[in-house]
Design goal:
alpha+beta; 624 residues; 6-stranded mixed β-sheet; Diguanylate cyclase; elongated; 18 helices
Amino acid sequence: MAALAIAVVISQFRTAYLERELAVRTQTEHYVKAMEAHVLYSIQSVDLSLISFANAIKVLSAKQSRSPETMTDLLSSRGASVNSDYWITFIDPKGNAIATSIGNSVIGASYADRDYFKIHLGNSYKDKLFIGGPAVGKISKKRLFFLSRRVETATGEFLGVVAAPVNVDRYVKVFENSRFNADISITLVHAGGKVIARVPNFDQAFGRDLSGTALFEGVRKANAGTYKTHSVIDDLNRIFSYRVIDGLPLIIVVGSNDSETNRLLQQNYLTAGAGLAILLLLMISAGHFSLRTYRRQEERELRYRTLYSASREMERQLLVNEESMKLASLLFQNSGEGMMVVDANGQILTINPAFSLLSGYTEKKLIGHRAYELASHRHDQEFFDDIFACVRSTGHWNGELWQQSKDGEEFLASMVVNAVYDEQGNPFRYVALLSDITQKKASEELIWRQANFDTLTGLPNRNMLYEHLRQEMKKTDRSQLPMALVFVDLDYFKEINDTLGHDKGDVLLKQVANRLLSCVRTSDIVARLGGDEFTVILSELRKPADVERTAQEILKKMSTPFQLGEDIAHISSSIGIALYPHDGADADSLMKSADKAMYGAKQKGRNRCNYANSGEKTTETVYK
């Protein structure tokens, strides 16, 4: 009987221990996902700055990209987008630092031996982000790891590397604030094996190689998993969960040594030992009348087992619920996204620290106010009525809206709203997640403009010209009104550049663009192909004479002297004209016809316009 009791109790303890271990594994897996979201968000923010700088440098002239003064001005003008956790450095093709966003401390230092510079000398990371391993900064002496992108011209020529050294201390602080007890360890590891950040024991762990440990044995098998091993850093047995961040050479590892489980297990062993000793004494003392009390003892033992099982289940549920609440609170307080909870009437109940940072308001200032009061005046009441109608009918809404911070500054936010329902199925809370995407939108707009517009004149470039040309051809097909493509090439522009300099040449090109715009209708398109070549799309022509009149006006305006500061420039223009669909059935053939007609005008003496037609003949008009 005693042996059976001992076996039952040991079995119960074993089951309780395994359940506790499973709860710890679940906890570390949730922790890993939360930390992965923070690291991924921070890396994407830094990469957005790198892309913006790389695109800005790409459109500079060769002289400007080699000028430390120009590069320093470029980086410092965008310093508002860079925080104290990282900075931007531009490195030339020889590996020397040209400029940085934080001053002149690194200018002239050689980074040719760094892994991120060597990798960008080839094309294996063309248009890709490279994340290097941890290292101590040459000048700053800070513990860093590096994000970098290759910078090249539009033709693929290597201009250098734009790098962002990231201060590892930012992750150490976040990891430390995220731990709700001392048993938790959080580590960020580079795929090359070295530790980037860890709490606790950061000083001993930084740069330590873990490639030969159980972690990388698991990584080679799967991108996520859980294992139990002895930590080589702080000499503790831990349960670890890890995740390889998708698309990045980074691994998040969270461990727990679960000292609480061991303490509870020892306590239960002591309690069980004392209980079993008492049970044996009672069995010996009551043995002489066991037959009379057998049924009563059996009922007592059954109640004991039932009560014991119920107490263990209650303990397990309390532990799970407590950990879930702590984890939910941790995510709410440390989320990189702003979070706001409102009641069914739209009144604010609480906000997290990220929302305070975003809006400038403290939680105390906002409680009791309506959520729509924080929005910009760009949105009317109907806009918010539509949002609430959507949430009430579907349970969620996501989109973009303009918000206004405490200091009056407006910013564009991406917002997701989800409804929380009570036991009767009625919505009684709404949770909103917000993130500032103003910089992201501005960067996208900058990249789009650099790809589609000429940086000097502001006119559409060759890419945008083709898009307009195809659209105008479709309009012509529908309206049956002809369209003309006009090529304008400046005569003697090279002489202006050679005698007055390229700066004066740029001023001349800007004035040419303005004069061309003054010669056409607002519905017409003026574009710059490059150099001294311009194009004009004259759409929906009702009279053939309209083309001739516009061409003569352009010849006149180009022949009028240009005032370039203290200098006066005299030029003229050669014009080629092609009509759609007569001179070309598609964009390429029409461009070739207009280009050929323009060269015909140059060969016949310049300062004239020349018409293309379906044959080899051309007609011409000379400006007098």
